[in-house]
Amino acid sequence: MGKKEDYDDEEMTVELELDDGSIVNCAVITILPVNEKDYIVLLPLDENDENEDGEVWFYRYSENPDDPNEEPELDYIEDDEEYEIVAEAFDEYLDNCEFDELPEE
């Protein structure tokens, strides 16, 4: 899976090349440390840079400590138990986030 990082004033995004060769632009939600490993949470975006369904993707994330300029590695989480642990950690992350109050109409 290929990836390219783009830095924006508002959010960081990555382009993922999927197994079928298609490219998906994703917003980086966070990088979670779980059980001494790092995981990245991505929000896939459509052609309008929106996500209507709220689906997020989890990947194992690692950087080369010897070369900070090398692109990070993203790996599929194939183990269901590992995936569930990461999903629970993300739920806890969301519970601890402070969301902006909705404007009153």
Describe this structure in words.
The chain has one domain. It is 16% helix and 40% strand. The chain contains 1 helix and 6 strands; from the N terminus they run E-E-E-E-E-E-H. The chain has one helix at residues 80-96; strands spanning 2-7, 12-17, 23-34, 37-45, 57-62, 73-75. It has a 6-stranded antiparallel sheet with strand order 1-2-3-4-5-6. A hairpin with a 4-residue loop joins strand 1 (2-7) and strand 2 (12-17). The longest helix is centred in the C-terminal third of the chain and has 17 residues, at 80-96. The protein is globular and about 35 Å long. The N and C termini lie far apart (44 Å). The model is unreliable at 1-9 (pLDDT under 50).
Produce a short descriptive summary.
The protein is of the alpha+beta class and 105 residues long. The protein has one helix and six strands, in the order E-E-E-E-E-E-H.
Order of helices and strands: EEEEEEH
User: How much strand content do the residues show?
Assistant: 35-45%
Q: What portion of residues is helical?
A: 10-25%
Largest sheet: 6 strands, antiparallel
Low-confidence stretches: 1-9
How do the strands of the widest beta sheet line up side by side? 1-2-3-4-5-6
